[in-house]
């Protein structure tokens, strides 16, 4: 009797400790399989970055199998069957935006495969509503030209920059997050893992991208699928997670010279796949890909059979009150 009373006391004080420790969060959104259709809205706008893309609505993407859900899988892809008529906006593809928005949170993206192919420009990112860059943007996984490693990037209004490379395993290619600098390059931290993007990522079975956002920093980790040091809570779909013992992320954005509270407001999660446009189009010339970007994308459907995301799930955790 006494010993079991003691044991439960120990358990109680241990969990009380966990509740107050910084870096401790509980699961609030578990998006898997069919529930992507409830958690996201499909956007059909013209790509603001001038991509050669025709974003379709949810019904069209469902009937044309550009999105496909099974119990533990959600596929989002571009059309790979049709030549695109010259007067069209571009190749059919999908852009989804989460209905919920988030302030402090941890987002865990379990990604088995990401889009690859000449001219592709895929992204997993977060942004605040319509007044961009007010409210800020965080790019978690984004790139062009099939070439990694991945870079994670913040885009903000003027007056936000990063102090250096301390606290991360990656390295900054630009410190200033101000969207006005260098044509909206943003403060961008490149991963040290060559399997963090594109064909290499897919050969490694993908992995987990994780964003932690607090009032004073953002951190982004990537663990590839068979890395033994992926935290068990990330791998095993835990209800609670504690980021404090995860080690250095590849991208660490502290608030030393960036007031995160004013630069970032509530964010939606966005997943999109465009083609060519401002970045992928500009990089195409050095890509070793044939023809011009737009010509290639319009006329070679079979080159896009691997232009798809395969998600195991997206989980969002929020801090305990
Ligand atoms: C739709 O896509 C899924 C995933 O790629 C695939 O398994 C399935 O066979 C496709 N269905 C049709 C009708 O093509
Ligand atoms: C996705 O959409 C947003 C806004 O439409 C755009 O800024 C972004 O560049 C697009 N593509 C990627 C890969 O992020
Ligand atoms: C595109 O990829 C090619 C081949 O990997 C590489 O040489 C080139 O530097 C890349 N260009 C850009 C802009 O990423």
TrEMBL record:
One GO term (biological process): glucan catabolic process
GH16 domain residues: 40-288
Leader sequence residues: 1-22
Superkingdom as given in the UniProt entry: Eukaryota
Entry's transmembrane regions: none
Pfam families noted in UniProt: GH16_XgeA (PF26113)
GO molecular function annotations of the record: hydrolase activity, hydrolyzing O-glycosyl compounds
Keyword Hydrolase included in the entry's annotation: yes
Key words, A-Z: Hydrolase, Signal
Protein name: Glycoside hydrolase family 16 protein
Origin species: Crepidotus variabilis
């Amino acid at each position: 009797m006494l010993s079991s009373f003691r044991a439960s006391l120990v358990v109680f004080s241990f969990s009380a400790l966990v509740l107050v420790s910084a870096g401790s969060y509980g699961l609030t959104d578990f998006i898997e399989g069919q529930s992507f259709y409830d958690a996201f809205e499909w956007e059909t706008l013209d790509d603001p970055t001038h991509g050669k893309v025709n974003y379709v609505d949810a019904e069209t993407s469902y009937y044309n199998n550009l999105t496909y859900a099974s119990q533990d899988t959600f596929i989002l892809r571009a059309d790979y069957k049709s030549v695109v008529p010259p007067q069209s906006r571009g190749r059919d593809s999908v852009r989804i935006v989460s209905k919920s928005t988030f302030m402090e949170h941890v987002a865990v993206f379990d990604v088995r495969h990401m889009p690859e192919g000449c001219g592709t420009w895929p992204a997993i990112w977060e942004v605040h509503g319509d007044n961009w860059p007010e409210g800020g943007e965080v790019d978690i996984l984004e790139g062009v030209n099939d070439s990694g490693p991945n870079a994670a990037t913040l885009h903000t209004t003027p007056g936000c920059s990063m102090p250096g490379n301390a606290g991360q395993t990656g390295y900054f290619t630009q410190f200033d997050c101000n969207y006005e600098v260098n044509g909206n390059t943003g403060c961008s931290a490149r991963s040290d893992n060559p399997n963090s993007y594109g064909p290499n990522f897919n050969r490694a079975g993908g992995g987990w991208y994780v964003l932690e956002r607090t009032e004073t920093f953002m951190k982004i980790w990537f663990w590839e699928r068979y890395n033994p040091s992926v935290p068990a809570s990330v791998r095993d779909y835990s209800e609670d997670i504690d980021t404090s013992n995860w080690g250095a992320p590849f991208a660490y954005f502290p608030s030393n010279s960036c007031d995160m509270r004013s630069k970032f407001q509530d964010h939606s999660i966005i997943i999109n796949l465009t083609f060519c446009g401002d970045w992928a189009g500009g990089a195409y010339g050095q890509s070793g890909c044939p023809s011009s970007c737009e010509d290639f994308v319009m006329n070679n459907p079979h080159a896009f059979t691997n232009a798809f995301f395969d998600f195991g799930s997206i989980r969002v955790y929020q801090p305990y009150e």
